[in-house]
Design brief:
Among the domains are: 2-125, Immunoglobulins (Immunoglobulin-like); 528-609, Macroglobulin (MG2) domain (Immunoglobulin-like, Sandwich). With 611 residues, the protein is mainly beta. The chain has a five-stranded mixed beta sheet, with no helix packed on it. It is globular and about 70 Å long. The protein is built from one helix and 44 strands. Strand 19 (258-265) and strand 20 (271-278) form a beta hairpin.
Length: 611
């Protein structure tokens, strides 16, 4: 019996070897990804993604025909159809495919690749979902990316209702990344994408804001890909179309790593860059003040014998700034662990006070928001067991104006969870985004993370939570509440891409893709601009106005010097009543004016931003 079993195993191994050798020397094609998901796209709008077809055989791959089949094939198309193609050994074809849903629902089709490969015809699955535009708030789920991977930073709403995304991209057949800005319309549909950087340098952008002139300024990193040196802080200034105005690098020393995390505008037209810089064994928190042309006005370091970094910075109401990060110098459990690190500085960057918060294990900050009562809400994660952490939990700490803890709460599942960004919502509550390990990958025996979104009331009590993702890794980088009351989230996905792609999600107020039905109201009888509410406000306020007839409308905001800081509406609007929610998170505290102008009629009101 043993001899028979051994003979059988030997024959099976010989057969397997024969199959493997034959396959290695036969013509072979690889399609990536095999399942191309387009996301949730508003009906009547377009999404475009790429499929890569590789020749991994030992001779020329001749593709004779490419076609899309299936019941919903009419909603997917190659853009353009390349016809017959010949690929040399190790060559690849990048095939753009468009998805254009006509109405709400789920759709699928198949891409058929006919070639001289032994496996022909080879098949890739195409799928997408359409969201209904007839019910109010626009919602969507979008995936953007190049064939070789993308990084994602912040997303912010623009004056035209669209979005600007900061990130990075590794171009096809390149070994280094370029810094990128991606502009979409209000439906998440791509309008343009721009690349910045130098040949043989790796660049990436982590945060971008809209500038008073309608352009953008973004901050990230800049490193020569062939050198063993450390990255520098990298800043890009562009016009409204993303065309480069100037770019600059900033560093403490060519031998130190300098990294940035955030950028904000200052009341004098300049900017504050926040990040960290390497020292002997660890790093210090680092602030740089620049003018509108990028000239350094001052720079300051913060920290002690351990390590400090900055996750986010915001203007305070007295002309100074507040930043949050993490510190091991001031950790309550010693220099091997990190605590939350909150620092107040004056207008010149001089430290006014600092505080730390944490337990006996790691406590790391991801972001923070100023609260309506003059306090702070810090967000990140904790692994400290005395707080109730199981593995690692998302962690919120509510502080009063003096920095004393009012409450602290944990959120998450039984594995690793964390918060990377938190905002104050227009109903007086909070919303944070981050990641949560929800899927167990049996092939690699690891837990995979999804994007994690949690909405709370003003006391931190969870109202709802959502996760987004599939069988690989997803995480969120940034969130903001939009002018329509929904939420825009930027992050990354590897489940729906070959490597990593930008993952852009627009949710309704309830965290769902289904929109809220808007009631039919009687048309207003006269032109009117209401007082914003709340007023005074912290970060988010609502502006309502009434139009008795259709016309071109401009709603703009000005600072106390009369300089226009942003345009909320500029275009033709139908007669009706409108409610605009404005997020002034990136502006300094103080008085502002908002002006409504249409058909020769002008009204102006004053509001007070508290920070």
């Amino acid at each position: 019996m043993r001899v028979a079993t051994a003979n059988f195993m030997r024959c099976w191994m010989i057969s397997l070897l024969t199959i493997t050798v034959t396959a290695a020397f036969s013509q072979t094609v690889n399609i990536s990804p095999k399942n191309l998901y387009f996301g949730r796209i508003p009906e009547g709008k377009k999404a475009q993604r790429d499929i890569l077809i590789y020749n991994i055989g030992t001779k020329t791959l001749n593709i004779s025909k490419l076609r899309i089949e299936g019941t919903d094939a009419a909603l997917f198309k190659m853009a353009p159809d390349p016809g017959s193609v010949s690929l040399g050994i190790a060559q690849k074809l990048v095939l753009p495919i468009e998805f254009l849903p006509a109405m709400d629902g789920s759709y699928s089709a198949k891409l058929i690749v006919e070639s001289n490969a032994a496996s022909s015809p080879d098949i890739a699955d195409l799928s997408g979902i359409s969201t209904d535009l007839d019910k109010g708030i626009i919602t969507f789920e979008r995936i953007f990316g190049s064939p070789d991977g993308d990084g994602t930073g912040s997303v912010r709403e623009t004056a035209d209702g669209g979005f600007i995304i900061a990130g990075s991209m590794v171009r096809l057949n390149e070994d280094y990344s370029d810094a990128t800005l991606t502009k979409t319309d209000k439906y998440g549909q791509l309008e343009w994408r721009r690349w910045y950087g130098e040949e043989d340098w790796s660049e990436g952008l982590g945060a971008a804001i809209v500038t008073p002139d309608g352009g953008y300024i973004a901050v990230g990193s800049h490193k020569h890909s062939a050198q063993l040196g450390q990255p520098d802080i990298y800043v890009v200034k562009t016009d409204a179309s993303g065309n480069l105005v100037w770019q600059k690098s900033y560093f403490q020393s060519v031998f130190k790593a300098d990294e940035s995390s955030d950028i904000i505008a200052t009341a004098d037209g300049g900017y504050i860059i926040a990040g960290d810089t390497q020292k002997e064994q660890d790093k210090d928190a680092y602030l740089i003040k620049i003018d509108a042309d990028g000239k350094v006005l001052w720079e300051k370091l913060y920290g002690g014998i351990g390590g400090e970094d900055i996750a986010a910075i915001k203007p305070s109401g007295d002309g100074g700034y507040v930043f949050v990060g993490s510190s091991s110098t001031y950790s309550t459990s010693g220099p091997s662990d990190y605590d939350f690190y909150l620092v107040k500085v004056d207008a010149s960057g001089n430290q006014v006070w600092q505080k730390s918060y944490g337990g006996t294990d790691w406590d790391k900050a991801g972001g923070f928001t100023m609260t309506g009562d003059g306090g702070y809400l810090l967000a990140g994660y904790t692994a400290s067991p005395e707080f109730g952490a199981v593995a690692r939990d998302a962690y919120l700490i509510k502080l009063d104006a003096a920095g004393s803890i009012e409450w602290q709460k944990l959120y998450g599942w039984e594995h690793k969870d964390g918060a990377t960004e938190v905002i104050t919502t227009d109903d007086g509550g909070y919303l944070f985004v981050g990641s949560s390990e929800r899927y167990y990958d049996t092939a690699f025996e690891v837990w995979r993370s999804d994007i994690y979104v949690v909405k709370t009331d003003g006391g931190g009590v969870e109202q709802w939570s959502k996760t987004f993702g599939d069988v690989q890794e997803e995480s969120a980088a940034f969130v903001r509440q939009c002018s329509d009351g929904g939420y825009i989230i930027s992050g990354r996905t590897s489940s729906y891409s070959k490597d990593n792609d930008i993952y852009l999600i627009k949710l309704g107020r309830d965290g769902k893709f289904t929109a809220v039905q808007q009631p039919v109201t009687e048309l207003p009888k006269e032109f009117a601009l209401e007082q914003n509410y709340p007023n005074p406000f912290n970060a988010v306020t609502s502006i309502q106005y009434h139009l008795p007839y259709t016309g071109n409308v401009e709603l703009a905001v000005f600072n106390i010097q009369g300089q226009q800081v942003c345009t909320l509406i500029n275009g033709v609007q139908q007669a009706g009543s409108y409610l605009i929610r404005w997020n002034a998170d990136d502006l300094a505290g103080g008085f502002y004016f908002y002006r409504l102008h249409t058909e020769g009629l002008v009204q102006t009101r004053r509001m007070l931003l508290l920070k």
